[in-house]
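Blinded run. Sample ID left blank on purpose so nobody reads anything into the name before looking at the predicted structure. Input follows.
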Amino acid sequence: MKRLVTLLMLLIVLPSTASAWWNKDWEYKKKISLDTNTLTQAGVTIPDDAYALVRLHTGNFSHFLDLAENGKDLRVLSADEQTPLKFYIEKLDPINEMALLWVKLPKGMATLPEPVIWLYSGNAEAADAQDAAGSFDVAQILTYAFSKDGVKDLTANAHNPSEATSTQSEGGLIGEAASFNGGQWLSIPAAPSLQLKPDQGWTFSSWLKVDQAQASENVVFQAVGAGQKLTLSLKNNLPVIELDDSKSGKKEFTGLLPVELGAWHHVALVASANNLALFIDGKAAGSFPVSLADLSNGVTIGADATHARGFVGMIDQLVISKTARDVNSLNFDVLMQGPNTPLVTYAQDAASDEEEGGESNIVATLNNVTLDGWIIIGMLGVMFVISWIVMIVKVIVLNRNHKENINFEKEFTRLKAEDITQLNREVTDDDEDIEESPILLSLTGGHARFAGSSVYNLYHVGVEEMNRRLVKAVGADVSEQVISDKGINSVRASMESVLVREIQKLNDQMVLLTIAISGGPFLGLLGTVLGVMITFAEIAASGEINVNAIAPGIAAALAATVAGLLVAIPALFGYSYLASRIKIITADMYIFVDEFTTKLSERYS
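Blinded prediction complete.
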């Protein structure tokens, strides 16, 4: 019954519906889309191990001041708005209204017709759901974001530097960055999970910004092994790869593409067993055949292992992976993280009370209705169904009755007094059927003439009573037949008795509409009073007095009154219409009794 009543109320009031709202405890959500046109034009697809960088600011997010402390209420969901995604917050500044979130995208997102994720916010009671360590793929063994918390590895490996002399800079590509002045460095000690093995491949990538030319070979990255050192440096804006092997000596390779001054550029070095590939902003800058050894004795950033040949510039979003990343993956990072081609678009913020496709206010209110309220609403639902059945049946039957009355009256008015019995016929199966089921005959139609006409029923009784009072003479002694005044009055009495029964049939079941009209609102009011009593009793027991505690219970209690009115109002309109039709048919019957007895008196008195 609860489902039936809910469906009826939804159909009647037509509330706005929406796609499911993930959790009613969250007030706001935002749709975040990946620009497939940009990806298509660049010939890039979304990798299965991709990360989305969500940049929030006052232009695309209007609820910074509503966020819980440290953004603990932020949640990111997949396109189905059911599956939470792992994420972490690199930067959150509600005062200046900006935030940076990294989201691990679900696998298979490239196959979706619309690659989107959903950002939920607005729940002060929520627990922090950030999971920086769990957000990274196992292949990503080191990630430095250079945030305000210092130089820390965000992955579960915790490859934090043993020495970190770089300066934090506010002018990073993604939040803060690490600034190097030529005498600063990061020393990352050796660890079992930081072994760069060429047989399985590895990748170093980072964003660099250089404001002045590097006259000498200033080191960006150096990895050291047992008998080999691999160095990535810059000289005269060109990337240079040095491979220093204790057995075969030193080899040097210069990249084909420069790192332009004054702008951020993505630099990636992809290593395999017999090759080194260099990429600048996702474009191939050189491929060099080499024989690499395991590099497992530590990594230095911004200088070499002796802290010489220092780099001058800024570094942001430094990542080391233990796999050789493909070109598509690198290009996706360039598009996602870079400043030139925004890959992420942001829809308007949506609130839970205005969501199109989510839970409507009507459904939310019904969810708060108590058991006694549902009992009352269930009773009103029964009354609602019965009243509509009565109205529909009565409309069909009365319309058929009125139509047949009109047809009969047209025929009767053409008769002369001496032909008064001409329209009479024997009782048929249709006449018996209409006594048993008027609605069935009205829907299917009867074959008998004037079947369903209440006026004809009066006529038929009048003719039958008249025939009983006429004495049929035979032979030569035939005189004109006469009915006395008492006989005519007797015929009239018989017709009036049938008229009363016809009126009773016309008014049959109308009392159910009267009950719905008068009883529906009072029954609904009873449910409301009970609901209000229960609400205030619960508030008194809890000791919590505020609008949020009172409003849901009161709204749910008022749902019973709404249900009562939804029963009574249609029943009132239907009753008024049906009463007017019954009044017309009743008047026609009274008029016909007078008309018939007048013709009868004219002919036989």
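Unblinding after everyone has recorded impressions. The CA atoms of residues 308 and 406 lie 112 Å apart.
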